Every structure is written in C-alpha cells, then in structure tokens.
Amino acid sequence: MTEVQGTVQTGLYIITNVATGGYATLADGNISSGLTQTTDDGNDDIKWNVTKLSGGKYTVAGLVFANYASASHSPNSGDTVKSSANNYQWIIKQSNTAGQYLISPVDNDSLYWSFSGQTATYVKLSDTADYWTFTRVTS
Fold first, then answer.
1. 74: buried, middle or exposed (CB in 10 Å: 19+, 13-18, 0-12)?
2. How far apart are CA 33 and CA 64, in angstroms?
3. Is the four-CA dihedral 132, 136, 137, 139 of positive or negative sign?
4. H/E segment holding residue 14
5. Is the pTM of this model over 0.90?
6. pLDDT in tens, 69-107
7. Residue-wise pLDDT tens digits, 43-74
C-alpha cells in the first residue's frame, strides 16, 4: 500500500480522514445510504475506485457495492455524502501539506468532506475543511 502525494490518479484507494484516522466506508448497498467512517481495516467496503476525469474532477465509487459517493446538485453545509447509482463528480485537490487532500463537490467547491466526530459519524459536507489521505491498494 502506498500513500499518494501529488495528483491522485485513477485507481483503487483507501480514503482516510487525517484528524480521526477513520476510513470512509459505505457499509451497505442501499441507494442514498450515507457514507460513514470505520476504524476496521479488514473489510473491502473501505476501498474506493477513484476515477480521474479532466479538469481536476473525479468520480468515487465503492468497490463492494459499486455505488458512487454523491451529493445533491445544490449542496449545502451539513448535507450527508450519500451513495447513488449515478456518478457524481468531486474535486480532489492536494492541500498545502503534501499527501493531504480536500474533497469538494463540483457544484460548490467551498464545501468539503468532513467527519464531525468519532466512529460511526456520517461524512458530511462542511465549510470547514477536513484533510484526507489516499492510500493505493490492490483488490
């Protein structure tokens, strides 16, 4: 496993919150289920297929259920990042610290993926940035 620095390329990753050490996960295959965090690194539901598109945009889909991480088309602070059968585009941009990234919806790049607390908290959009690492893995 290799932690990424620089531009995130298309591949399979574990996405980890820097502050909590929790992994972004989609624990079930239901459409509209919220992304949560877990500290259990033994499940494939913490692995995400990240696809690099043009212009710094990406799609993020869970390995196990193949649902996309998504937000509404008019996202607001406090909205939960949910699963969707339809792809949704995100901006993944490295922060001023190498290897730490901000994840924002393309429809509002002033919002960021955030965990507001400890284990079992939903990934929400916030105007306060949380930093994430991308660790490349094999299936």
1. exposed
2. 14
3. positive
4. strand 11-17
5. yes
6. 999 999 999 999 999 999 999 999 999 999 999 999 999
7. 999 999 999 999 889 999 999 999 999 999 99
Cα distances (angstroms) measured from residue 75 to each of 37, 50, 61, 72, 111: 20, 21, 19, 5, 8
If we measure between CA atoms, which residue out of 43, 5, 12 comes closest to residue 132? 5
Name the DSSP class of 44: G
Which amino acid is it at 42? G
Can you tell me the distance from the alpha carbon of 89 to that of 68, in angstroms, rounded to the nearest whole number? Answer: 9
The first and second tokens of residue 71, run together, are 């937000």
**Residue 55, φ and ψ in degrees, nearest 5:** 65, 30
* Rounded distance between C-alpha atoms, residue 55 and residue 36, angstroms: 28
- Lookup: tokens for 8: 């995130």
Instruction: Give the up-direction half-sphere exposure of residue 14: CA atoms within 13 A in the CB hemisphere.
Output: 22
Please give the C-alpha separations between residue 118 and each of 10, 127, 130, in angstroms, as whole numbers: 29, 19, 13
